[in-house]
Amino acid sequence: MDFDESLELVKQAVMLGMVQYHDMMSRGKERLKQREAWRYMEAQGFQRSKLDEWVSKGVVTKRKDSDKPNAPTWYELIEIQQAIVAELLTDGSR
């Protein structure tokens, strides 16, 4: 393993630690409304469209509390965090 590969693994490990820390600090906020999820994704360096991609792949589940058209759309924070870490480990880029 060369220096660049080692550095990339360290970066990914640090990112995983940051995600876990954020999870600890945001207890009680396990579900995010769609706009909150978008803001969280952007803060992590990902575009909003990535969330739709993960939903279509079945990695993240899109939820609604009712069948009403204006009911808020929810996402589980842990699913988004897992998708982010998986994306970083497989792709290494944002």
Describe it for me?
Helix 1 runs antiparallel to helix 4 (77-90). Helices cover 61% and strands 10% of the residues. With 94 residues, the protein is mainly alpha-helical. The model has no long low-confidence stretch (mean pLDDT 84). The chain has one domain (3-90): Arc Repressor Mutant, subunit A, CATH 1.10.10. It contains 4 helices and 3 strands; from the N terminus they run H-E-H-H-E-E-H. Strand 2 (63-64) and strand 3 form a beta hairpin. The protein has a 3-stranded antiparallel beta sheet with strand order 1-3-2. It is elongated, with a radius of gyration of 15 Å.
Chain-averaged pLDDT: 84
Secondary structure: number of strands: 3
Described by strand count, sense and barrel closure, the largest sheet is: 3 strands, antiparallel
CATH class: Mainly Alpha
Shape: elongated
Give a short synopsis of this structure:
This protein has 94 residues and is mostly helical. The chain has one domain: Arc Repressor Mutant, subunit A (Orthogonal Bundle), CATH 1.10.10.
In terms of topology, how is this protein built?
Layout: H1 3-25, E1 31-33, H2 34-43, H3 48-57, E2 63-64, E3 73-76, H4 77-90
Antiparallel strand pairs: 1-3, 2-3
How would you describe this structure in keywords?
single chain; 94 residues; mainly alpha; Arc Repressor Mutant, subunit A; 3-stranded antiparallel β-sheet
